[in-house]
Amino acid sequence: MSELERTLAFHIRARKLPAPVREYRFAAEATGGTGPGVRKRLADSGLKDWRFDFAWPGLMLAVEVEGGAWVGGRHTRGKGFIEDLKKYQEAQRMGWTIYRTAGELIKNGEAVKTIRELIEAART
Question: What is the tens place of the pLDDT at every residue in 42-66?
Fold first, then answer.
C-alpha cells in the first residue's frame, strides 16, 4: 500500500465511514470469484485480473488513488494510462461508480469528503 493509500485509509477510518475492501478483484468476482479457474474465466471474458484500491462492493463504488502525476509514473505514461482506461471502462460497463483521486486531494481532505458523499448517494 502506498503512502497516499495509507493516508486515505486513515481518513476513511477517522471519519467512521464504512470499511472498504482493499485491492478488490472486481473482474475476478464478476466472473465467478477468485477460486480455481479464475484465470480461464477472465480470459474467456476478455478481462484482466483488475483490482480497485478501495471498494464498497455492495454499493458498486470504487476509489482509485492515482499516483505519479508529477513524476511521470506508470498511470500517466501512454501504455499505463490506456490500460487504466480499459480497466475503468470495463468496470463502468459492469455498473461500478469509480472515483479517481490523487495526492493533493487526499492530503487536503477533499477526497474523503467526496467519498462520504458518494457513499451517501449510493445508499439512497
Answer: 999 999 999 999 999 999 999 999 9
